[in-house]
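new request in #modeling-help
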Amino acid sequence: MAVAARNDAAVRIVLPRDISLDGHLVDRALGYLTVTTGIAFAVALGVMLAALILHRARAGRTWAQHTHGNRPRDRALTFAVALILFVGIDVTLAVRAKGDLEAHFWRYPDHDPTALRVEVMARQWAWSFRTAGPDGRFGTPDDVVTLNELDVPVGRPVYLKLRARDVVHSLYLPNFRFKIDAIPGSITRAWFQAVAPGRTEVGCAQHCGVGHNRMRGELVARDEGDYRAWLARAETESRLRFDAAAGSAADAWDWETGL
Amino acid sequence: MTTDALGARREADAAVGLLVFLGATAMLFAALLLAYAVLRAQAPHWPPAGTPPLPRGLAGANTLLLAGASAALWRARRASPRGWRAAAGVLAAGFLIGQVVLWRHLAAVGLGARGQLPGQVFLALSALHALHVAAGLLVLLVSRRLRLVSLYWDFVLAVWVVLYVAVCWL
Amino acid sequence: MTAATTLADEPIPPAPTGFLRRHVFSTDHKVIGRQFLFLGLTFLAVGGIMAMLIRWQLARPGAPVPLVGKLFFASAGGVISPPAYTALFTMHGTIMIFFAVTPIVIGGFGNFLLPLLIGARDMAFPRLNMASFWTLAVATGLLCASFFVPLGPPQAGWTAYATLSTALGTPGAGQTLWVIAIYLNGASSVMGAVNYITTVLRLRAPGMSWLRLPLTVWGLFLTSILNALFVPVLGAAMVLLLFDRLFGTQFFVAGTTPGAGGDPILYQHLFWLFGHPEVYILILPAWGIIGDLLSFFARKPAFGYRVTVGALIGVVVLSSVVYGHHMFTTGLSPLLGESFMVLTMIISVPTSLLVLNWLGTLWRGAIRFNTPMLFCLGMVFTFGVGGLTGLYLADVVADIYLHDTYFVVGHFHLIMAAALLLSLFAATYFWYPKMFGRMLNERLGKLHFWLTFVPLNLVFIGQLIIGAQGMQRRLYDPSVYEAWRPLAGLNRGISHAAYLLGAAQLLFVWNFFMSLWRGRPAPPNPWEVGTLEWSVPSPPPHHNFDTIPVVVRGPHEMANPAAKPLGRDWLSQTELVEEPPR
């Protein structure tokens, strides 16, 4: 299906298609890093090659310059270059990253009534995703539980809280530049938002045993109307299929308290 | 160089080496204590509900034995080394026996390896410490560098006191 | 401050007799150094073969391995199965870090060179030195034994994260043997650290002040400090993991309610508190060696010696507070996350000073392109690329995407495998004459360089690209993900470059062994360099120096005008000449 993406075709030679709200911030950081480190490397390489060519030993040039490089101007030059690199690359990146993290990635939609809340249970070797259903509470018969498929609406935040049954896993959505670990004994959280409908992949990014490779799922982003239609069907099926005695019923927890 | 001067230099070298080794060992126990601190800080209650009391008395008695061994070595450095070294060895061996008694008691009351977390912490830390005591006992038997042996035992005592207080009293 | 003044008339100990005392249970640092070197080089080959097998699987998932498939993977019909694959990358990482590079650089070259470079007859504790080697040998045996236990070798990655590495995640003796082997390996390192630190503090020759030490010595000394401080932290993690595996404790196993019981993330904190200093432990000796060798082959003093030493010390200090950048996706608090990001970026400052000083050494030199120098220059190149890619991973925003992808794999291999490996080869070509009394073949050496340097870059820069495209690491079969199917061609290309890299090392093996018997006999000072090891025969006698030298100048007095009347462009650290005032 033809899908719009946040990054253009040229960038997609290197990076996956981006259908997320904030993924471009990641790409922006990657781009800045590549340009600045690329320039720094090219200059350093140029200096090195110049030295190797101009200052190689040959007839008429058998003596080097006798300097220990500890004169004030030598040190000043060295420190100046290091400072330029530090400010131009590190400081700029750090300031930007702090801003991006605090304004976007770490601004969890705790008080946003439109956010879709999803509880994720990671286990060897599958992902289960649970939404609270019409009653708004997790662990009730009307929850919609899907295995290895994350269904999300376009244009609304999707807020995830994650647990793991056995070992550490890591939920990875390449097309959203999204990654968060799922850790036994803890609840981690992250959020993202889709800006275009589409079907993208869900992966595990933390070695979790011999089945790590197979821990793949799909994310299906639907426009709001399509999503609601899908949800209505899914809720009906879930209600019919609910079995309180099944082990998976224990995979839910109260969103606020974690119990 | 005279053999005396060479011997003195070698003893000084050994002192430096021992200090580096003690630094490394201190980091080992510091990391274990850090683990203890983290687990404790993250626990909703400490000690967790249902934990039997830790055997402060028994462990305290063992502390006295270990302190005695260090004190015996201090005396050994002053005079009649043979006798005081033997005393230190006996007291150290007594500490090790006491630790074994302690561990069996812990297992019996539900503070063993599969018991509550405070017991597990105490067990792991005291077991590693006991290995260092055992190694120190071997060194006590064979080494002639009394000053350095005594320094090692002081260190082993200091680590024990910190462990004991941190796990049993705090 | 040191005992240096009494060293001058230290009696020469008698040389040992008998085959066992001279070659097996020797306390001579030169023999022990060679033992570490051979153990390390052997396991470098083993780890390298494992890498070839991993690359085979990534290039052709599920295809039977040619030649050796039936031998190693008989039960699966010559195909690498998922458990075999996880064991392969686990053991590849473990072996390369702990049983190849560490023994070669620190145990091998460190041992052989340290007393010679500072003007001593041996290490401060020769018997402890021997014990350090044999402890490593026992650890190696245990690690190898893990291949032959019923449930097979360890499979939790070289990082052995809990809870995968506990008895719940990976049952069986294999993983337990791994834990014990790592602990013993660490004990061997700490023994070595005690020895190296004491030796540098106490046994420097008269006149060998701190600022006259070769940078190689600084690298080894500072690495030993990190070893002494942080290997024990790994020891603590291993002790707790061993208790979890053997006695049923739950330090790293979570309880049923969130926050109660043990904590898998505690393992990560302990492991990386060690793990990040560990990467500096591995690279510091290489930085030192490169600093010296660039000076020697540019025929010019090392540029900014004091700034370099300051930068090395700065890295050592900072290395302890940056480890959290391995854990950005674990849900660290924002304060921790941001702090680790900033501190990690700060550590790039001393690192960039090192590189700038290397360039300063080359500038206006009279550069000789012998084989050791080619490897040094290759190291500078790959370290530049690898170091800069570290900045990507320091930025939390970029790291969320790049964490656990092949970008990380490319980054650390560029430094650990490329830069470090190239330094190791530089060191070998440089000091082989001193160790074995023969010269390695220059032509073969240069060919070895190019056939190593080019594929190294293709493999690991290729991995940077694959990682940027998003492919995760530790994947048995990337084609399970639709998104990585277009990368199949690139994966295959990387594998082909890797096979070439592996095959090229046979040149080195051939050169190494052939030159032992047929190499040109080495003069005492073939590279025309002034550090102390070149003032004794090749190889040195058991007691190193007939008389303990008295040092009067630094190690990089190349192009000193006072040498002109002597018909050369270098001054040794001990010779007395009229030097013009500075």
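bot summary: The radius of gyration of chain C is 24 Å.
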